[in-house]
Amino acid sequence: MNSQPIDFGIVSYGYAFGDDCDVVAEAVEEFVDDPERVYRWGYKRFHRAPEGMTGTQLAARAARMALDRAGLTPDDVDQLILAVSDVPDYLNWDASAALARELKIHLKPTLLLSEGCVSGVTGFGNAAGLFAVHPELTNVLFVAVNRVSEYHRNRMKVNNAIHSDGASAVVLRRGHDAGRWLATEQFTDPEVADWFRTDYGGSVAPVAPDGWTVRDHTNGLERVQDHFRDNPAGLRDFVRALNSRLVEVVDRACDRAGVKRENIAKVVHLNDNQGSFEEIAEEFAIPVDRTNAAMAALHGHMGAADHVATVAMMTETGELVPGDVVAMIGISIGMRWYCTLVRI
Fold first, then answer.
1. Fewest C-beta atoms under 10 Å: which of 84, 99, 165, 188?
2. Could you check whether the bond before residue 328 is cis, i.e. omega within 30 degrees of 0?
3. Is this prediction's pTM over 0.90?
4. pLDDT digits over 262-302, tens only?
5. Cα separation, 40 vs 274, whole angstroms
6. Cα–Cα distance, 246 to 316 (Å, whole number)
7. Which residues are registered as beta bridge partners of 340?
8. What is the DSSP secondary structure assignment for residue 188, as one 8-state letter?
């Protein structure tokens, strides 16, 4: 199963966040009636974009930082990839094309990924495919953004995480040694694909009922409980499988890349709650400080933007150094388990 990876790496990183919001009563009670439940997640802060700031604008801020740090102009970009993990700015509309327009990237190919937070990680695998079949590609700009639509989604009731507004970006270059992509793996359990969906705004139910608000919206965890209401044994099995499948997908990626799991320096999970990080660390048999638990508490879950922003900041602070292998992992809508391995 071992295979030689396509040769490309990360030249530079960029990121942009909404305004900082402390996790205090005034902020939490705007979204939920049971703030103690949110406090138990262990977040200290989250990001909320100011009114009028679109996901496209937030993504452009991160992209410009990555381009500036790489010493590139929009004309140097050969391919743009955009991952969007919340409700897009508009329907029947290509957010990747809109971002290209915002950045003044003209007549270059774009790719839109919309599989939730997974696309900010498996997008590296998409980039590998593009490098493989398009030998003319040199610089690929990969951007991920999460801008919560507060009409459609309650940022504190989607799951057991506070959802944040943020974007991240990388410039990927063929033949670049640093930040070298090693492997991407993912698999999906489609039987539970509906658990975290947004019910209103799509073609099935384009308009919400009168009086409906996201404050009353059933969250994903409540749907999980309903699914297993008459099958408690099935619920126990599924809960056990959540984290064991994370180990499985990492092992698949390690096998493909020809590296050993024990040689992974950091396991970077999506910006989940602190209890989840403790469970994941136990499953991987590593201390919690080999995860991104501390950083997650300061940023909230920024959807597809979590992993690249985290790796960028860990590289800047020296938590990650050249040669370290990082596993970017998570569980996303679908439900999907995913991993991308990168050597810093």
1. 188
2. no
3. yes
4. 999 999 999 999 999 999 999 999 999 999 999 999 999 99
5. 8
6. 27
7. 184, 328
8. E
